[in-house]
Amino acid sequence: MFSNSAKYAIKAVLYLAIHSNETKRIMVKDISKPINVPQAYIAKLLQELSKQNVVSSARGRQGGFYLSRANRNQSIMSIVDVIDGEQKFNTCMLSLNECDKDKPCPLHDVIYSSKSTLIKSLENKTVNELSQDVKSGNSFLPL
Fold first, then answer.
1. Residue 20 lies in a domain
2. Coil, helix or strand for 1?
3. How confident is the model over 32-53, as a mean pLDDT?
């Protein structure tokens, strides 16, 4: 359901949520290995997330990426929206251009309610909530 880019971006943001703050910034090279994503790839994703204010960054000797309080309160869906775009969840599962509620594909009614529930859950779950789950051991993410 998520693209690899969106999955990598979520892992990177959660890594930042656990390991960074306004005074402790993380360089891309220090993020790529723990989350197992090529450095150039994660740099591109983080730059896009930074442009859209999902993560924060600073240039210079003490530069790097980090999460501010506002970044931590972003929804997980905001990450997916930046990387995959809103259309990712609105497209037909069979890739039909004309699929909608008035002209549904064979999977439309089966998938639609699940898709809506997933979107609402992602909109209501914050980066901070997921990072707290990882920190407390309620969920697992090898970082």
1. yes
2. coil
3. 95
pLDDT at 9 over 80: yes
User: What span, in angstroms and rounded, lies between the C-alpha atoms of 116 and 110?
Assistant: 11
Distance CA 14, CA 67 (A): 9
How far apart CA 82 and CA 70 sit, in angstroms, is 16
CA distances from 141 to 12, 20, 120 (A): 11, 16, 23
pLDDT band for position 49 (cuts 50, 70, 90): very high
| CA 85/CA 14 separation, integer angstroms | 20
60-77 in b/e burial notation, b at 16+ Cβ within 10 A?
eeeebbbbeeebbebbbb
With respect to residue 141, please indicate whether it lies within any of the assigned structural domains: no
Provide the whole-model pTM: 0.88
The parent domain of residue 86 ranges over 4-136
Q: Domain tally for the chain?
A: 1
CATH of the domain at 51: 1.10.10.10
Residue 61 domain flag = yes
